[in-house]
Structures are given as C-alpha cells and as structure tokens.
C-alpha cells in the first residue's frame, strides 16, 4: 500500500480524527502476527516462534535484554516496512524496532507483547563516488558499511565498534573516530528515508521535511522507522590507530594530558581522537584504556604533538598497540569481533555531562572507584568502567553549519561522563541500579559544587531509568513535540512501540 501525500496531510492535520483511535486497546499479538502473515503470505518474512530461524533472529547483543516477541518480521524493502506499519497502526498491534540490538536497555529493541521488526534485511550499501555520499540500509551493522567503503579508500562517521547497528547509533547522535574533525555522525547524514505511522514513505533532507530532519538527528525512534540513511563520505584510508593500556600507578598522570586534549588539543589537531576509559574489574587492579585514532599515518617515533603524551612512554603503559593501518574500519572491526553476540552478562549504562575541569575529572574518578569498591566482592561478575569523552567546538560548528539543526541542544563544549557496568545474576539487578543512581547523584553533586554541571545526557549511553530527551532544552522539546504531532499525530511510536526514550509531554 502506498499512502498519498494528500492522505498524509489529512492524517497529520488530525482531520481523520485519529488521535482518539490511539487510545484503543492493543490487539492480541497472535492475531497481529496472523494478519501480518496473511499480508506477506509465502514470502518468508514473518517468523513465528516455532520456526527454526526464530532463535537466531531473536538473539540480542545483551542476552539479558532478549525477550520473546510473538513473531519476528524481517522486511526486505521500505515498502515492506510501510505495509507492516500501516497494518500495525490500523489494528493497534504492539511492535518493537531493531537495527543492531546494541542498546542494552531491556524492551528498547525487543518486546514480550508483540512483533519484533528486525531490519537486518535492509542491508543496502550504495556508494556514489561522484557525490561523495553513501546510502546505507537501516539494518546494517557498521562492519558491512566499512567492508564496502574501506577498499574504495573512503570513510564515514560510523561507530567505533563495528558490530553496532547503524540506526540506533545515528538516531542518537553518534560519536565516531572522525567526530573531532566532522562533528556528530548524525550531522553527516544528508538524507533519511523514513516510514511514518500511517505507512507513508518520505524523505527528509535539506529540501523537504527539514523540520523532521532536525528531529531525526538525536530524537531516536519517536517519529517513524528510518529505512535508510545517506551519509557524507571522506577520503580517509591510511591512518594510525590502536589501544594504549595504563596500570593503576600511571592513572594519576593521565588527567593533565587528558584535560589538555579536551580543552585545546582536539581543536588544535582534530585529526586525533581518543576514547579515555577507566576500568575496574572485580579482583583485578584498576587500569585505564585509551583507544587512539589519528586520521593519517604518523611517524610513531615522533608522533603529532596532541598524541605524544599518551603514546611516547612518558606515562608508563603496560601495552601500546598503536600502528599505521589502512581501512578506517579496521580498528572498529577488531573491537566488533570481540563484542559480537552475545554477552552472557547483565549490563546497564548511565550518563551525564560536565564542563572540562582537571580537578573535577580527578574527583569523578575517585568517586567512581570508591563508590564501586564494596560491590567488587559482593556482586559476582562485577565489571565497571567510566569514560570521559569530549564534545568539542567542532561538533558545535558542524551543527551550526548543517541544515536541519539537530535537537541535541549543545551550544558549548562539554564532556560526556558515562559508566558501563556488567554483572552476572538477575538477583543483583536492583542493587546495580541503585549503585548507578548513587554514583551519578554523587558525580552530579560534585560537578554542581564547582559550577561545572552541564546537564546534557548523551542518548546512546542513556540508562533505562533516564530520559535524555528531557535534557535537550526547552526549545528543542517544543520543536520535537510540534514535529511529533505533525508526523505521528496518533502517537503510534509512543504507544504501540513501548520501549525507547519518549518525548515528554506528548
Ligand atoms: C559495544 C558497543 C559499542 C558502542 N560504540 C559506540 C560508539 O563508538 N559511539 C557511539 O556514539 N555509541 C556507541 N555505542 C552506543 C550505541 O550507539 C547505541 O547503543 C545504539 O543505540 C545502538 O544502535 P543499534 O542499532 O545497534 O541498537 P538497537 O538496540 O537495535 O536500537 C536502539 C534504539 O533505536 C531504535 N531503532 C533502531 N533502528 C531504528 C530505525 N531504523 N528507526 C527507528 N528507530 C530505530 C530501537 O527501537 C531502539 O530504541 C556502542 C554500544 C555498544 C554496546
């Protein structure tokens, strides 16, 4: 079914009186699966629980977040998605949307109450070397994109772990190895193809649906199902990358160069990018892992100034695996190989942000170590890390220069502070939730005490008990609400899609 623009206008203006309809009780999921099966009869796109492929298709990156959808729908085209969404809207069927399933929050990319749309069949990657763009199907993992682009000598702003899905990553913002140079990954998307709640397929780019374009740059799954993203490509291939690991004794020496990198280094030399990560596994000494990336080959015996303090041995490292490589996907693929399905652990993330301050970084680090200490012995499988990642001037400049301004609401540089914890037993879930709550209450209080709390919460690292959308600022909330009412007036993506971060006040 293709829905015309005039029907779309009637629906979006509310003239069809559909807002009342959204209050109806959802249909029985088995009935929904049967209806879907009839619509796609004989095409093998609706996988019931009894089907041999169900278990493989259902597997989630985080085993603890794997649910039991009544059936799994595997579209191959945007038209398939359109027909299914129109059916779900009409019959009030609960559904969940999944790209790479790397969002650990339970219920975000699966459901126990309905149909899982697994987008993995939308795996197109079409590179246009004349226009320096690539069209990427919404079900791709970044590894597939890198496999296509690396041999052509070009790069996109994708995930630093190649196993992550393109959709969740891009709809939340996207921090890439190239972000210090080119900004948010989502600000590098020139066109989104999206299926709206009424089944219409539209394109949001700088010429049409510009209001929606801005909201897709950070607004997550609230507006529709994106079926493809068209991204800018850059002529980057040979580069330097790797990981430097520091023992506990070296950690105190890292904060001064980290602060310098954040406040001046990343702007002075945006070719350089690091992921500064502090790790504490139960029973193991504390360590720090600083992942390195430089967009060109470097002379490792005389590295660029900005990189030097982290790799030249002046801060003793017990491992230094930085090398010149080809194919920008090579390091993400090395990480991705390690994270592929399916972690046996349970996991939660939490995030906040602060303004750069060396002493505050040290305070946050000590707080994190101290607050987590008791859990190391009491929680089986406890593993804990905290990262401090800058969102610098280049992000803001790119946002300001990009049509369809993103809704993230960042107007000054800040540092994203995110914790990522793992543990083994479901019986410890509540304790771990309380641990994160306690830790972040203390971190925010420490930042506020020195006037350095920033408020912004990066959606892609948002915990299940957070709602990063509430931190995008009043004007962006108003924008998102307006655009939501225009493109999804029945709030299908707020009610029938149960998981995900929702726009407050809808
Ligand atoms: C190992 C690992 C490494 C990571 N590395 C990075 C990194 O380098 N940089 C960074 O910024 N983030 C990173 N992240 C965070 C990551 O960006 C988010 O977890 C992101 O949501 C994952 O996207 P996904 O498609 O795999 O997830 P999914 O769980 O499939 O989807 C996430 C959310 O998006 C919705 N969604 C998915 N597809 C669509 C669609 N087509 N249309 C509408 N809604 C959709 C889902 O319903 C869900 O709510 C990493 C995460 C992990 C686990």
TrEMBL record:
Domain FAD-binding PCMH-type: 65-236
Gene Ontology terms for molecular function: FAD binding; oxidoreductase activity
Keywords carried by this UniProt record: FAD, Flavoprotein, Oxidoreductase, Signal
InterPro entries membership: BBE (IPR012951), FAD-bd_PCMH (IPR016166), FAD-bd_PCMH-like_sf (IPR036318), FAD-bd_PCMH_sub2 (IPR016169), FAD-linked_Oxidoreductase (IPR050416), Oxid_FAD_bind_N (IPR006094)
Domain of life: Eukaryota
Secretion signal span: 1-21
Pfam family name, one: FAD_binding_4
Transmembrane stretches, start-end: none
Recorded family membership: Belongs to the oxygen-dependent FAD-linked oxidoreductase family.
Name this protein carries in UniProt: FAD-binding PCMH-type domain-containing protein
Provenance organism: Orbilia oligospora (Nematode-trapping fungus)
């Amino acid at each position: 079914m293709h829905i015309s623009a005039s029907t779309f206008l009637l629906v979006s203006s509310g003239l069809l009186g559909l807002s009342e309809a959204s209050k109806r009780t959802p249909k029985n999921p088995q009935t929904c699966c049967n209806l879907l099966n009839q619509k796609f009869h004989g095409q093998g796109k609706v996988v019931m629980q009894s089907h041999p492929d169900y278990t493989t298709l259902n597997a989630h990156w985080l085993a603890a977040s794997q649910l039991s959808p009544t059936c799994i729908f595997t579209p191959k085209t945007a038209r398939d998605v359109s027909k299914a969404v129109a059916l779900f809207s009409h019959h009030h069927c609960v559904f969940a949307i999944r790209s790479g399933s790397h969002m650990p929050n339970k219920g975000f990319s699966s459901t126990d109450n309905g149909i899982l749309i697994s987008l993995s069949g939308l795996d197109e990657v079409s590179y246009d070397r004349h226009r320096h763009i690539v069209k990427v199907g919404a079900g791709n993992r970044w590894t597939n994109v890198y496999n296509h682009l690396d041999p052509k000598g070009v790069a996109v702003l994708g995930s630093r772990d190649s196993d992550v899905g393109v959709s969740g990553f891009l709809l939340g913002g996207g921090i890439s190895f190239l972000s210090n140079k080119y900004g948010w990954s989502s600000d590098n998307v020139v066109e989104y193809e999206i299926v709206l709640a009424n089944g219409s397929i539209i394109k949001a780019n700088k010429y049409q649906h510009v209001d929606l374009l801005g909201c897709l740059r950070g607004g997550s799954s609230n507006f529709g199902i994106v079926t493809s993203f068209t991204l800018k490509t850059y002529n980057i291939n040979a580069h330097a990358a790797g990981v430097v690991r520091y023992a506990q004794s070296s950690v105190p020496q890292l904060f001064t160069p980290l602060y310098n990198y954040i406040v001046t280094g990343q702007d002075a030399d945006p070719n350089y990018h690091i992921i500064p990560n502090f790790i504490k596994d139960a029973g193991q000494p504390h360590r720090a892992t600083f992942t390195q990336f430089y967009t060109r080959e470097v002379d490792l015996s005389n590295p660029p100034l900005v990189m030097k303090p982290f790799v030249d041995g002046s801060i003793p490292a017990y491992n230094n695996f930085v090398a010149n490589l080809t194919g920008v996907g090579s390091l993400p693929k090395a990480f991705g190989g390690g994270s592929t399905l399916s972690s046996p652990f349970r996991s939660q993330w939490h995030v906040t942000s602060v303004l750069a301050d060396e002493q505050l970084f040290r305070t946050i680090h000590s707080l994190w170590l101290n607050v987590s200490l008791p859990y190391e012995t009491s929680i089986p499988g406890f593993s804990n890390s905290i990262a401090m990642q800058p969102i610098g001037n280049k992000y803001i400049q790119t946002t300001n220069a990009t049509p369809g301004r993103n809704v993230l609401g960042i107007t000054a540089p800040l540092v994203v502070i995110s914790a990522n914890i793992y543990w083994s037993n479901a019986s410890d879930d509540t304790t771990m939730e309380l641990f994160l709550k306690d830790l972040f209450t203390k971190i925010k209080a420490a930042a506020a005490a020195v006037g350095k709390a920033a408020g912004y919460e990066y959606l892609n690292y948002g915990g299940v008990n957070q709602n990063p959308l509430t931190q995008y600022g009043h004007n962006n909330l108003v924008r998102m609400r307006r655009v939501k009412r225009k493109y999804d007036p029945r709030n299908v993506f707020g009610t029938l899609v149960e998981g995900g971060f929702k726009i407050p006040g809808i």
